[in-house]
Structures are given as structure tokens and as C-alpha cells.
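My main concern about presentation is that the manuscript never shows what a single data entry looks like. For the editor and my fellow referees, an illustration may be useful. For illustration, here is how one protein appears when written out as sequence plus C-alpha cells:

***
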Amino acid sequence: MPDVAQHLALSQKLQYDDLDWDLARAHGISATEADCLQYFADIESQTVFYMLEVAKLEVARDPELLAFLTIWNYEEFFHAQALTRFLTEVGVVAPDAAARSHDVRRAAQLRATVEDWVQVTLARALPRTFVALWQCWGAAAELLTTQAYEQIMRTTANPVLRELCRRIARQERRHFAWYLEASRERLAGERFAQRVVRKVFELNWTPVGSGVKSPAQVAAQIARIFPGERIYEVLGTIDRRMGTLPGMAGFDVCGRYADRIQALLPVEARVVRRAGVDYGADADGEVAA
């Protein structure tokens, strides 16, 4: 397990009260940005439920694992708070984080119940493999989330939104680093776990948010955040990083997801993956400190 001490030392509540809200209001945001931020806030607000579901599993009660989960949950909670504050400041009607969390969860109650049952069953039947799968899934989710915030950071005309996304992305990238290294340790020398994790990804992987949003909603949002071939660059980055894990060489799960969702998109938003292009080669730059 990666040393959690460094994460404990770096962990803190996301700072956003010092942002220049007058400047944020003066610049405003686009309708697309407002929609993306609402989606982000919906997903960030669900972290507490995920934490509760995982923490009740006996296999997840390793002290360092629980320490990281506590840090992760604390930091993610304030991401939803910060996004809601920003949206409200620029004139977008947004529910507070607590109301949002409850409403989103209630709307997805059936999916959440089924996912929890599957998770409990797998954790009891294959505890070591479950933890490896869970950490790999977390790595892919955190890297996609990081790149989504970085995408808005690079494209927005609002300097306050740019700074807010930069701050959130730094924490998300740190979460990704922990999950990736934890996955590497869990998979090393475990051929059975490697095969199971790969097969589950190949059969079931969908982007973060799929548990509380419909497939069409998720597909539309991913394509909106990463338009055109950018979707293949970003998802190719996840494939490339996951492919460095033991037993994951040639990983192309996320790229194939991008292929599948094209049919769900409006004709004008569809794009075809070009053969022979390494879309993930230059797409995962670090957020500036």
C-alpha cells in the first residue's frame, strides 16, 4: 500500500473563499460550462455515499486504506461545495451541496442498490481481487475527473473558474496517484486478480457518474467536455496509464467506450477514431503547482 503519510501531510480543505467573486461575475460562464459544472457538482456530492458503502466492507478496513478514504472523502466534499458556490456567484441557480447529494441519490436509488449488492457479493467471494479491482476503478475515475477539470481550466475565459479548476485538479491528480500505485501493488504477481480486473473493465467500464446518471447523460456530458477527437486523446491517456499496471498491457477499454457512445451522440458531434493514432501520447500533462 502506498505510504499514506504524504497524503495526510498534504491534505486540506479546498480553499475557495479567497477567490475574486466580483471578477467571476464580471466574466460569467457559458451555458456549456454551467451544464458541466452542475454535472461535476452532482457527482462530487455522491462521494460520501460511496465512502459509506466501501467502509462497511470488512476487506476495506485496512488502517491505511481507511485513512486515505477519509482524506479523499473530506477533500471531495468541498469540491461540491466550491462548485455550488461558484455557480451561485455567477448567477446560475444551483441547489446547495446537501440538497444536491440527496436528490441525486434518490433519483438513482435502484442503480445504487444494485451496485452496492454486486460490490458486497464480490468483496465476500474474492476479497483480495475486489480490493485490486476497486483501486483500479478508482484510478481510472480519478484520472478522468482530473482531465475534465483541466479541460475547463484550459478553455474557460473566466479567470476565477480557471483557478478553481486548477485547485480541484491538483487534489484529484493526487488521488489518482494514490489509486494507481495501490493498484500496482495489489496486482503485482497476482495473475488471477489481473485477469478478473481486466475482464470486469472490458465488460463493464463506464466513466465516473454512471452510477447516478443514465448512459445517454454520461455519453453526452463526456462528449461535451471533450469535443471532437479530444475524447480519444483523454480516454487514450487513461488507457495508456492503466496499461502500465501488471497484466494490463495493451489496455484499450476507454477508447472502445468512446467508440460505442458515438451512436448516442447527435450526428454533428460524432467523431471516428483514426487508425494508428496514439491519442494518449501527449494528453496527460500535470497541473502546474
